[in-house]
Amino acid sequence: MSETEPIIELREVNKTFENGTVALKGMNINVFRGEFVSFLGPSGCGKSTVLRMISGLLRPSSGYIEIKKDNFNRDGDTPDIGFVFQDPTLMPWATVEDNVFLPLRLKGKNRNKVRQDIDQILSQVGLKDFRKAYPRELSGGMKMRVSIARALIMKPKLLLMDEPFAALDEMTRFRLNNDVLNFWDSSDLTVIFVTHSVFESVYLSNRVIVMAPRPGRVTADISLKGNYPRTDSYRTTTEYAKNCRFVSKRLMNTVEKI
């Protein structure tokens, strides 16, 4: 699904925080259109920092990050990027529908004109019957579905996901993994996903970037074989087990060198 020319480039990217912590050093990464890339590594390796710099929420201390705007922009200079954080960060006083509508409202959209889009995305995430519910009435998995819907309602070209399922039980995590793959497979979407889980990274991705901390850096860039669409049956295949062993070994080698 990737193309020859990268749509995101990181060149010699370094990040040092004001307290002197060196979060990243010498990051060099290319991301290609249509890829599903996972950043995998232990806590403190700078996975989330990279994601925030790609989104523009943080600036690198040195080096540069280039996002090819022609691949992402519908209009103006703001790239079409969706961001799903580890915490759903929903407005507790607003309904599911209002939370999903928020990005459109901030863009000045009229609710009646985008109601069909809201209905469609709520159906896709399985929350159409909960549109008038409040966050306090939802399970953890349902809250995360709202967060995903809110990120996708703007139809982004790039979706950044920062350990969105880390706090969820395994079965909910599996279901949401499948949901994300369905969104990715059915649209012109590039996904960069942060996770601590070898199994999750292998299930979702066609490429896994292994990182080591102190300072954060890439120790392995692994292209994964495995046909899409992937379903729960893929988890029982020899190919999945082989890929998990290989990625796990590379991660363990990284950790042992710390």
What do you see in this structure?
- By secondary structure, the chain is an alpha/beta fold.
- The chain folds into two domains: 6-80 and 157-256, P-loop containing nucleotide triphosphate hydrolases (Rossmann fold, 3-Layer(aba) Sandwich); 91-155, no CATH class.
- 36% of the residues lie in helices and 24% in strands.
- The protein has eight helices and nine strands.
- It has a six-stranded mixed β-sheet, with helices on both faces. A three-stranded antiparallel β-sheet has the order 2-1-4.
- A hairpin with a 5-residue loop joins strand 1 and strand 2 (22-32).
- It is globular.
Key features?
258 residues; alpha/beta; Rossmann fold; 2 domains; three-stranded antiparallel β-sheet; 8 helices
Intertermini distance: 34 Å
Quaternary structure annotation: single chain
Looking at CATH, the homologous superfamily of the largest domain is: P-loop containing nucleotide triphosphate hydrolases
Task: Please count the beta strands (DSSP E, at least 2 residues each).
Answer: 9
Helix content: 25-40%
CATH architecture of the largest domain: 3-Layer(aba) Sandwich
Largest sheet: 6 strands, mixed
Proportion of residues in extended strands? 15-25%
Biggest sheet strand order reads: 5-6-7-3-8-9
Number of DSSP helical runs: 8
**Rg, alpha carbons:** 18 Å
